């Protein structure tokens, strides 16, 4: 399920970028901040997925 999680995280980052741009265009600081929050949350989740991948690789390399 790692691939789907990564895809969802990228989608969340994209949604955040859209909200951020819409907030800037509409001069709405709250929408812009919400977009930054979404983008950051997606990025943090991506880091978690990469850490899980790295841990899996370490396990695989030590099993052999």
UniProtKB/TrEMBL annotation:
Indicate the segments forming the CsbD-like domain, all copies: 5-56
What Gene3D superfamilies has UniProt attached to this entry? YjbJ (1.10.1470.10)
Biased composition, class Basic and acidic residues, residue ranges: 17-40, 47-64
- Domain of life where this protein originates: Bacteria
Q: Where is this region: Disordered?
A: 1-64
Q: Which InterPro entries does the protein's record reference?
A: CsbD, YjbJ_sf
Similarity comment: family membership = Belongs to the UPF0337 (CsbD) family.
Protein's UniProt name: CsbD family protein
Organism equals: Actinomadura logoneensis
